[in-house]
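Quick board copy: two proteins, each given as sequence then tokens.
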Amino acid sequence: MAAELVEAMNMVKSFRVSDLQTLLSSMGRSKSGLKQDLVGRALRLVQSECSPELLKTIRQLYESRFPKAPGWLAQRPRPPELLQAPYPARSPPHPAPAPPQGADYLNGLAATATAATPPTDVKLVPLPFYKTVDVLLHPTELVPQNSEKLQDSPCTFELSQSQVEQIRNSRELRLGVKSVQVVLRICYTDTSCPQEDQYPPNIAVKVNQGYCHVPGYYPSNKPGVEPRRPCRPINITPWLHLSTATNRVTVTWGNFGKRYCVALYLVQVFTSAELFSKLKRFSVESAERCRELIQDKLRFDPDSEIATTGLRVSLICPLVKMRLGVPCRVLTCAHLQCFDAVFFLQMNEKKPTWTCPVCDKPAPFELLIIDGLLSEILKETEDVEEIEYLADGSWRPIRAEKEKERDRERERSNTPECPLLDMCSPEANGHSPAHSSTSLSGKTAVGGAPAVVDLTLDSSSEEEEGGGAGDSEDTEDSQDSPPPKRGRYGYDKDLVTAY
């Protein structure tokens, strides 16, 4: 069903305005507006009401515009550049050059028998980072030749002079890696739906006289989970004869009951930056359309017991835990939460999974869109990490608890505070020569400062202290005088009790 949904959405994106209006009016929807509004309305219709009648109508409109030719001349027209499948429809068979004496093909049969065997009808899924230039070998099944578990399946092919020039004149993606390559793809032999790349066990690929690199396994951090191997096209260009000479490819694979197909393509490889440029040109959803989607999600439903008044959306990318740069989401996902388009493409360039980081559903490149409303919000806000969409399509910022606490502390710091008196300092207790305080007899401190009374002193110690203050006959005997007496509570008189 997912494959039919993607195919129907691709057809809708290739419709003219008249086709879109016919589709929307047949389903009782408004047919007014610009073409981009009609496309968006039709895509939402396909997502919400993917019924057999709707799919039949879409297919009839598509076939009325692109009629099929009879027989094997029928070729499906290419969709727009963004939606173009990396491998075009199979062209009619051409007579292959006669192989050298004794050469075998991938199915291990003789050359005469192989020429009569047509390729399988297996189709491989489109890959956004690859665009097919030529098909060198259509998907052909690997057939075991004996009962051994390890099988060798060889084949030969030749490059034309124009293909050689395309490889030589292509730019370098990085040192020694050309943007135009010859790649080998392997998948299961299954004609029910387009197949993803899948390697057989014990795979090894030998091109001419050298073995080419096959991606290894990714170790798993979870206990009990086996490591996974990323299956992707294998670049065999560095080991080819860049001339019209014959190239020989031998695939070694483990025969454990499953059936596999191999195919060879001349492709152009894109970088994540180039895919991002395509995304910005073709897949930006306007702010008005995003507001309509918010209003549709928050529209009051009388049959629902829970009324939703707002939707919270984080401005932090779930991939890298940083603020969003270019907010992106998938058309088929139900959530409005976005992820960063640049980081998402870079991660799939290194390890292709094409999975939504929010809900873990498939996120193919042709269904990615840039959220125009959230892009405007990111430009207007700098210190906000979360917002809430309201029922009328507007939004409001939501401040985190840390920010609220920081604001409260900032308000408290701006409030004037009363001076505090340190009761534990000697000056506060009246024993500093520069700040004498009032004793129990009622004397006032110098400078009009408020008097501090030492409550730990008894009357006897006060009298002794008062007598000593007026007697200054002999200062030399003060060094030999005994230490001052303690109060009746056993504390030094410079300390104040905290009771």
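And the next:
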Amino acid sequence: MPCSAMSKASGAVTLVSKCTIFPSQTSSNPDLKLSVSDLPMLSVHYIQKGCLFTRPSFSITHLIFLLKLSLSQTLTHFPPLAGRLLTDQDGYVYISCNDAGVDFVHATATNIFIRDVIGFLDVPDHVKEFFPFDRTVSYQGRFKPLLAVQVTELADGVFIGCAVNHSVTDGTSFWNFFNTFAEVSRGVKRITRQPNFTRNSILISNAVLKLPANGPTVTFDADAPLRERIFNFSRESIQRLKEKTNNQKWNFDEEINIVELMAKQRNDPLIQCSRTEKAAVNSTAEISSFQSLCALLWRAVTRARKFPASKMTTFRMAVNCRHRLHPKLDPLYFGNAIQSIPTYTSAGDVLLHDLRWCAEQLNKNVKAHDNVMVRKFVEDWEKDPRCFPLGNFDGAMLTMGSSPRFPMYDNDFGWGRPVAIRSGRANKFDGKISAFPGREGGGSVDLEVVLSPETMDGLELDAEFMQYVSGY
């Protein structure tokens, strides 16, 4: 469909054109039933994630043409993203792979430089304008595209932002699509990570999710005042933190190499690990670097919130169930295959015990979330089908999403790796944390932290936390 010209300005960003992109080949995929991991996401916003790049050497006109063409070709490998949601007469929700197409938006913000995106302590508000489908609830995928791509031309860069229906993808599937989109744009003829669309696991259920007539709504206040900041943790900072948590000196270089290899293998079946490497992970990673970092944040935010000792706090972590189920799901299974693991501890226990104790509480819950526990979560949901209650309902919750294992910086569209990763306004509330890999790799981590203004002020004054933040 030809693009329609647009001159509407929204703050710092001006929309130039918008059109529908269709798959380059007609889909033969059957309708895909939403799983017990997909359905709860009908009440949350579309995922909004994107990459900031330097400006390519060729013209923006050529860039837009290239991205439209490669998006069309990529959709042939991801036909569900070009479809729509439908509900049958029995109440089951499906993805209809009907080639209805996706939105493609071209925008300009030529008064914004790369430094204006990454050069401030807090994430600037104009970053939220780099994404389509702002505050769109996933249930609206019945009549709206399940995917939209926005390309925003900056003064010295380009931002490529994607919004994807969260009932259709989790982070693993989202970044596989984004990586493939970049791969096709580079001219790759045969993609390396073909998504798996099978629907034959325990996640596919006969339980029906009853929805209100007007559809579900988000369960948090999307207009509450918030501050959002990216905290960078270098490889060296993560090393020091892990050494402290485990109370001994680790061979950090060896561990990082092995853990990164294992993480990539979970998302890429082409990578193989030896028995020696797997044994080294099991013997070395008693408390992981990431669990150590989560414990550090948990303690600091609890201090900043100034709770009485008796106040119960919650730290939620999203875990990938693909490798936890038996039989295992394909690492490239397309859809949601995540569950949220809560860890409950009083504020007094969080602060009276040391960092290792807090990390151990997270560690034992993650380790315990095996095949039996995944299946129990499914059974419990089937007894009471409901949408996922996302938010900070008692003021004492932290919710960790995304993962530093996702290959976000592998998105080279043909002129270099991203400068930074950013997200939109979607699903932001006090206590929502997202973990990204650091651009320098090697085990570095960036935490996107969203807190109430007063809590963020306290976090920035927390000596234990800030000693590990790089470049502060």
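Board note added afterward: Confidence is low (pLDDT under 50) at residues 276-285.
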